[in-house]
TrEMBL record:
Record keywords: Dioxygenase, Oxidoreductase
Domain of life: Bacteria
Coiled coil: none
Sample GO molecular function, one term: dioxygenase activity
Protein name in the entry: Phytanoyl-CoA dioxygenase family protein
Organism per entry: Micromonospora parva
């Protein structure tokens, strides 16, 4: 696909912000991509203001049930790193900006997909507290938590609300790790990194690198305001402490291609891997959770040929 084949709702200026062919090749080889400035300063400031209202308790709707593995910080948890899922669903101010077609068009170019839907959105606040254990995000990759998803093209957009560099504990990629053959995986990998031993995750990264004869090359994403870091669902990533003296605020916007669907993924105890969507989304005609439910997984980009015009 070329840039000219995209749905003509993008302006000429926005089309200039799409990844080039070289950028798409870089993403395929390295597993990450740092975008051009795809959000204006006003849009980023609006995200930050909406996040502040969200933390003050503002909601446009609530989840009808609480999924079993929901990340949902509230003030009772204190000054730890905050993670709040489903913010695109619960808060219209956040959701409207996160559904910007340009971010979907960028993701579609990288994933070589005709359609991009939201999979999840997580509001993140990393406090400027030296030595806070929750500020360290150990090495992991997202597909482990998405075992019930059929796609291998899923990706994540990391959207900071400010310039974000190493001193803030920016997201850091293990270059090219999405192409590694995985060894040593068991049922524990479907648990979130916050529920696993950090040293075990470090060992898994080292073992997989050694098996693949690969160097562990860590690339901190230095992200100017309005730019976005994208990474493949199998790219190992993590983040370090925030020593900047001010909060690191961002949204991780997890994205799925149009072909993604729920699949059976058996675990060793005979149960099936599950995702939080499974208790929320509508069902398909044959009773499976529908990861295309527009209430939770709205389309943010569709190639114009898929729209019948």
């Amino acid at each position: 696909m070329t840039a000219t084949e995209y749905e003509p709702t993008l302006t000429a200026e926005e089309r200039e912000l799409l990844p080039s062919d070289d950028d798409v090749r870089h993403y395929a080889e390295h597993g990450w991509y740092l975008s051009k400035k795809i959000f204006t300063d006003d849009e980023v400031d609006a995200l930050a203001a909406a996040a502040a209202r969200y933390y003050d308790g503002e909601r446009d709707r609530r989840l009808p049930v609480r999924p079993p593995k929901l990340a949902y910080w509230d003030p009772s948890r204190g000054p730890v790193q905050r993670h709040n899922d489903y913010v695109h669903h619960e808060h219209d101010g956040l959701g409207a900006i996160l559904r910007k077609p340009l971010i979907g068009a960028v993701a579609a170019r990288l994933a070589q997909a005709d359609e991009i839907r939201v999979f999840q959105s997580t509001l993140i606040y990393k406090p400027p507290i030296d030595g806070e254990p929750s500020n360290i995000v150990p090495w992991h990759f997202d597909k482990h938590y998405w075992a019930s998803s059929s796609s291998e093209k899923m990706l994540t957009a990391f959207i900071p609300f400010h310039d974000c560099g190493e001193e803030m504990g920016t997201i850091t990629m293990v270059d090219g790790s999405h192409r590694w053959k995985e060894i040593g995986a068991d049922d524990t990998v479907v648990r979130h990194f916050a529920d696993r031993d950090r040293s075990q995750l470090e060992e898994m990264l080292a073992e997989n690198a050694a098996y693949n004869g690969a160097e562990i090359r860590k690339i901190p994403m230095v992200i100017p305001k309005g730019h976005v870091s994208f990474h493949h669902c199998r790219t190992y990533h993590g983040s370090g402490p925030n020593v900047s003296g001010r909060p690191r605020q961002a949204i991780s916007l997890h994205l799925q291609d149009g072909d993604n669907a729920w699949r059976e993924y058996p675990l060793s105890d005979g149960t099936l891997a599950a995702y939080n969507h499974d208790v929320l989304v509508r069902r398909t005609h044959d009773g499976r959770p529908d990861y295309a439910d527009p209430d939770y997984c709205p389309v943010i980009w569709r190639h114009r040929a898929q729209q019948g015009g």
